[in-house]
Specification:
The longest helix has 9 residues. This protein is an alpha+beta fold and 36 residues long. It has one domain. 36% of the residues lie in helices and 19% in strands.
């Protein structure tokens, strides 16, 4: 079984993702290509 640590590679920090995390409580991550 694949763990979330193998699927989520790292957080994406951009201007848009910063706005989403502050105002909308949404977070953006880089995801492994093997994730389905």
């Amino acid at each position: 079984m694949t763990t979330m640590y193998e699927i989520l590679r790292r957080p994406l920090v951009t201007e848009k993702s910063g706005y989403q995390s502050r105002k909308l409580n949404q977070y953006t991550f880089e995801v492994s290509k093997e994730a389905t």
